[in-house]
Amino acid sequence: QVQLVQSGSELKKPGASVKLSCKTSGYMFNKYGINWVRQAPGQGLEWMGWINTNTGNPTYAQVFKGRFVFSLDTSVSTAYLQISALKAEDTAKYYCARLTSVFGNYHMDVWGHGTTVTVSS
Amino acid sequence: SYVLTQPPSVSVAPGQTAKITCGVQNLGTKSVHWYQQKPGQAPVLVIYNDNDRPSGIPERLSGSTSGNTATLTISRVEDGDEADYYCQVWGTSSDHRGVFGNGTKVTVL
Question: What does the pLDDT look like over A38-86, one tens digit per residue?
Fold first, then answer.
């Protein structure tokens, strides 16, 4: 079955970097994009952007341009999210989600379980 | 870009019907999708393309649109329906593609 398995929780100090992984299985990796979604504690879902797994081209929501980088390793069907210069405000749960299209309308049909990132000195 | 407006909360008694609205400016021909998120869990797609259900989602959950408002209806509400529900539209502006509503917490009384 289709699965997105995310890496484990991270505790980082301000200014550090972190790289989260999202390993996929059960489908052809390059046929579906991967979204990244942030959820701060007690808050709603915030779309960060997505990466085209066929071309490797990333698209970032405006507020996530700069310190956030999406990447791929197609040999292991895995997407990555790297966050640099971490701030306390980056403390959140980060989800990856598969992007699918039905009749040209895009939605996120399968989600990873999420990775919790805590930024604290 | 799209702005999706949801009520913060909806309360409903077991067995009754809950309706969660999602106001979408300039919806046009775009489709609305809905996600359910139970406490401590990842979101789950429950409605896509306005009114289609993924396999495994009960028929009690249904979606509809009228003008600039999409509605998720939960019939015969059960305790297990208590969750946060988010609407989502895939926008046309490259940096505002996957817009989510602010979420509605459904409380079963």
Answer: 999 999 999 999 999 999 999 999 899 999 999 999 999 999 999 999 9
Q: In whole angstroms, how far apart are CA B95 and each of A48, A69, A84, A115, B14?
A: 9, 14, 20, 23, 40
Question: Which of A9, A43, A106 should we substitute to test contact with B (largest number of B Cβ atoms within 10 Å)?
Answer: A106
Q: State CA B50 to chain mean position distance.
A: 9
C-alpha distances in Å from residue B69, one per residue of A106, B1, B27, B31, B41: 19, 16, 8, 11, 27
Helices (H) and strands (E) in chain A, counts: 0, 11
B98 neighbourhood in chain A, CB within 8 Å: 35, 37, 47, 49-50, 61, 106, 108
d(CA B69, CA B4): 9
pLDDT digits (tens, 9 = 90+) for B23-71: 988 777 889 999 999 999 999 999 999 999 999 999 999 999 998 999 9
